[in-house]
């Protein structure tokens, strides 16, 4: 997947003459489990459909606006491979998911926040009315990138946290102020907070319906009151949620934990291999200054 990393000699050639875009000199970007979920049939479809240029993964970034100097960070979700694992990325100047980086937030920390935070916050805040009546929250993968941020947000809500993790991550999850911990079985069982997935090799969330008809039946039964209600939720990057990133960080409510940092120059493959171990505590980040 990663044979080489190309060094950009002329950043202006990427930007061209289109003044509606900003060129970001990336200083750090972070990995997310979702990058391991894209099935091969989707990659093949992209090639067949004529979108055959090199694909760039990555959604979270932190960097400096080229020739302007402002430090920014944000979320650049792209299903066609225009991601952030690049020295420079071209983004719309009106991009709502990009905000100025405060000086008390490093590029490494900033790149570790957006996707994990917005996923957890959308679920717990925008759809979290159930917490009032059920103040006990179960977080699967409590030591992971989204899980450890979710634990911190739930802690601020004064709700009871039940975390699920592997044996080697118990101490880390305890540091997230979980009230109770369940251990994953030693057997080969895959747990995730994204959809009803049983493997890292399939997509989670709503698209899971395409592969599991029983999920459709279970959802329909829950709607008419014949079973527990559950939801699939896509993250919301509306302004109010983006603003909460800085508010909660500055208040000390959230702090991203960095599992490991890899060099962009020659350790990109190792970063993805670290993700695939399913033993990550917090975030895996690529540092472009190394």
UniProtKB/TrEMBL annotation:
Gene Ontology molecular function: any one: oxidoreductase activity
GO cellular component, one term: mitochondrion
Gene3D superfamilies: Medium-chain alcohol dehydrogenases, catalytic domain (3.90.180.10), NAD(P)-binding Rossmann-like Domain (3.40.50.720)
Domain Enoyl reductase (ER): from-to ranges: 16-286
Classification via PANTHER family: ALCOHOL DEHYDROGENASE RELATED (PTHR11695), RETICULON-4-INTERACTING PROTEIN 1, MITOCHONDRIAL (PTHR11695:SF294)
Protein name (Swiss-Prot/TrEMBL): Enoyl reductase (ER) domain-containing protein
